[in-house]
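Cross-check.
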Amino acid sequence: MTEHDHHHHDHSELSETELRVRALETILTEKGYVDPAALDAIIQAYENKIGPHNGARVVAKAWSDPAFRRLLLEDATRAVGTLGHVSRVGDHLVVVENTPQRHNMIVCTLCSCYPWEMLGLPPVWYKAAPYRSRAVKDPRGVLADFGVTLPKETEIRVWDSTAETRFLVLPMRPEGTAGWGEQQLAELVTRDSMIGTGFPKMPGVPS
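Predicted model, tokenized:
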């Protein structure tokens, strides 16, 4: 995908949206409308609870429910919408599946579009210029930097997010998890495995 229809380009450290949020936070806090601690709690929730946990539940269901997996790969926005306990996805969500033959990786080269409803707040490195430029030119090298080595014959496909379309990687289910319930499986799913810069945890390996 070469065409982008972004409403802003992230030329500075903070995107236009982030700057506006910061300014609004400052004004509301100074006027006493918002408790900074409450703001921190909201950010914490998106970072650690709402975000990656939503994505992990979606992945775990896809691993254990073939019909849901098919729907997820055909129409991810609709599939997520069928799960009442997972927040809706505001943008068009596309799920790409890792296989032994193909490894998928997500980037946003022009700014930092990211499926935050599924993954929480984007990690700092995702928004940084080195990742955004190198992920497309040298994906294998970037994965090596993250400690991910793949067989030479595995194709690496890089998906470039836009303001309209966000991507989520469906990682391969770890071996040794036959008969596991969705909750157990969800605990193996990592944020990085859903971006494509990591793998799920292996059963029995401490975090």
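The radius of gyration is 18 Å. Confidence is low (pLDDT under 50) at residues 1-12. Passed to J.P. for a second look.
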